[in-house]
């Protein structure tokens, strides 16, 4: 057991997690998930928002079992290794809005950091702008961290607090399996066309999700943290994980014939360079201020972190708003109000980045 | 006398930021860091080892006291 723990914490452990995601995401795509979207936390949470009727964009509605798998896989790992630790109370409302705006930014680019890496590994050149924006946003976040930005301490909570989010995921999983209809036509909504209709078989999606959740919990895999640690403390531990992800996904895409280099006509992507960059700048900054990428927030939610769960809820609500208010991009380009929403989100992050600085202790 | 840092309840990356700041203030020395998650224990240990500190860890009641020493 001790050997296993030190393996997961090691460089080889984090690389293994990156390879696992990099191998299985393109395979999920081959088995039915949308192109260059074998795994995308933002897109998948947006699809869940749609399935629940929080938005009515009928092409992106599906209860993605991968998301439930991430949380429950993390829960299993946390329980098995005695790391399930219910805690909450670190600026939840600010975290809600960081999640909200992170989702808005991610949906202007069309992907979370995991999908940005997968898009790159699929040959989508637009991902370079997104990843550049992500790094820029994280860099701004690091400036705030250096200046003393801090959302405050969480406190240990009753066990029940930690179980709320995993149980919610179990309920959503039951909905995904049994497809109850709460009104004629839905909810639960399920797309009959578009990306929402493209999905791997439920059992396989769930199993891959559980595997990713388990490994990511053990290794603390985090894309935002990878960039942040390089900038903040010149530590390449997490970064080696995301390099492994890209390398593995590239190899699998080449084998499966899913590598199509270029900028134009990439799947579920647009080539508005400015808003690809700024959308992910907003997302990267929001992730940095909240302490984790969307995948990491799901993993923390599975460990009992109520504040991370609030961030996830903010993302899901943000996904609803993004489609109801024409903020999300499409293959044609940014939505009518997407750029304005990104600017508002950046202002929100800058204001709270400044406001939440802790005065230096006497 | 080693400087004490209480990083309990702080989420990533705050414990590392606090320890890094304390390290930057004194090139040599000893630090005691109290954390309450395994993730923070791992992160602070990794930072300390890469900065040339020796790390010893005591666990009690779900909390970890990390003693960082650099000769």
Task: Explain how this protein is built.
The complex is a heterodimer of chains A (362) and B (71). Chain A is mainly α. Chain A is 65% helix and 1% strand. Chain A is built from 15 helices and two strands. A two-stranded antiparallel sheet of chain A has the order 1-2. In chain A, helix 5 packs antiparallel against helix 12 and helix 9 crosses helix 13. Chain A is globular and about 50 Å long. The mean pLDDT of chain A is 96.
Largest sheet of chain B: 4 strands, mixed
Query: What is the rounded Rg of chain A?
Result: 19 Å
| Helix and strand composition category of chain A | mainly alpha
Number of strands of chain B: 4
SS field, number of helical segments of chain B: 2
| Low-confidence regions of chain B | none
- The rounded distance between the terminal residues' Cα atoms of chain B is 14 Å
Shape of chain A: globular
Strand runs of chain A, count: 2
The neighbouring-strand order within the major sheet of chain B is 1-2-4-3
Q: Specify the helix fraction band of chain B.
A: 25-40%
Provide the succession of SSEs of chain A: HHHHEHHHEHHHHHHHH
| Radius of gyration over C-alpha positions of chain B, nearest whole angstrom | 11 Å
Helix percent band of chain A: 55-70%
Oligomeric state of this protein:
heterodimer
Strand content of chain B: 35-45%
Distance between the termini of chain A: 43 Å
Count of helix runs of chain A: 15
Could you outline the blueprint of secondary structure elements for this entry?
The complex is a heterodimer of chains A (362) and B (71).
Chain A: H1 2-9, H2 11-30, H3 41-51, H4 65-80, E1 87-88, H5 92-109, H6 113-121, H7 126-146, E2 155-156, H8 159-178, H9 202-219, H10 223-233, H11 237-256, H12 273-290, H13 294-302, H14 306-324, H15 338-355
Antiparallel strand pairs in A: 1-2
Chain B: E1 3-6, H1 14-25, E2 29-35, H2 38-50, E3 54-60, E4 63-70
Parallel strand pairs in B: 1-2
Antiparallel strand pairs in B: 2-4, 3-4
